[in-house]
């Protein structure tokens, strides 16, 4: 009889209220035999942790820095499509600093500032693996209002 695989552990959930944001943009061109352009935009969000699993209540009220990045590469030919694969990075939970980072697709990235400024998005929910030594792999991000997050709880 085959052994049952243990179920993966439930992700930890953290909810932060968005308090502010700042954007930066960088573009560069590599000139050589093959010319290409790279660009990178960063949306730095500052939030305050409002909810977290019982085991980590010491982080309630603590500031969290959320870095959302959009990076692309453009080839030398005009017909080359930009590349920039989205992926989730990690969550850092430490006494002095909490942070998380993710690379987003361009369309989602560029729409977020307006959604935040208009109040359509007020909170971020992050789901992640149980941290080891203060760091855990990010599984998902959900941007919504507090009332929307309360509906799914």
Radius of gyration: 18 Å
Unreliable sequence segments: none
| Count of separate structural domains | 1
Oligomer: single chain
Largest sheet: 7 strands, mixed, barrel
N to C succession of SSEs: EEEEEHEEH
The count of β-strands is 7
Characterise the protein shown here.
With 153 residues, the chain is mostly beta strands. The chain has one domain. The protein is built from two helices and seven strands; from the N terminus they run E-E-E-E-E-H-E-E-H. It has a seven-stranded mixed barrel. The chain starts with 11 loop residues before the first strand and ends with a helix.
Secondary structure topology:
Elements: E1 12-30, E2 36-52, E3 63-74, E4 87-93, E5 98-103, H1 106-118, E6 123-128, E7 135-144, H2 146-152
Parallel strand pairs: 3-5
Antiparallel strand pairs: 1-2, 1-6, 2-3, 4-5, 4-7, 6-7
């Amino acid at each position: 009889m085959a052994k049952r695989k243990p179920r993966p552990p439930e992700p930890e959930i953290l909810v932060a209220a968005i308090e502010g944001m700042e954007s930066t943009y960088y573009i560069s061109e590599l000139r050589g035999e093959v010319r290409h352009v790279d660009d990178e935009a960063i949306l730095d969000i500052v939030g305050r942790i409002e909810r977290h699993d019982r085991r980590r209540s010491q982080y309630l009220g603590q500031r969290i820095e959320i870095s959302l990045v959009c990076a692309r590469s453009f080839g030398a030919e005009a017909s080359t499509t930009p590349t920039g694969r989205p992926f989730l990075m990690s969550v850092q939970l430490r006494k002095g600093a909490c942070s998380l980072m993710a690379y987003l697709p361009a369309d989602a990235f560029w729409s977020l500032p307006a959604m935040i400024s208009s109040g359509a998005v007020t909170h971020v929910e992050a789901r992640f693996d149980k941290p080891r030594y203060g760091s855990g792999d990010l599984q998902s991000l959900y941007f919504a209002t507090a009332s929307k997050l309360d509906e799914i709880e």
